[in-house]
Amino acid sequence: MPPCSPPNSPWAPPGVPPSTPRNTPLVTTGPFRLVRNPIYAALTVVIASLALAVPNAIAVLGLAVMALGIEIQVRRIEEPYLQSIHGNDYQRYAARTGRFLPGLGRER
Fold it and tell me: pTM for this structure?
């Protein structure tokens, strides 16, 4: 990571919000109509498949560490940021859409 990377750069430390709010629309179509995090869900399926293909302690540990990391990233960084940017629209979307699986992890 460069020592003085700006917040909008890809090398910004995790959890650093962009320096200017991004006024992008909330995407709720395509795979996002089923789950809020389809890319993370697909990544988890791929890593779980690898752990099943090479069933050893390291593969299972890697899957667990990755799943925990994704869960922390989504709950502590991404969801609060989306809530702050999109407000009630995101709240309604989160109430009807699962976090990683359809119907599971909906916000109340």
Answer: 0.70
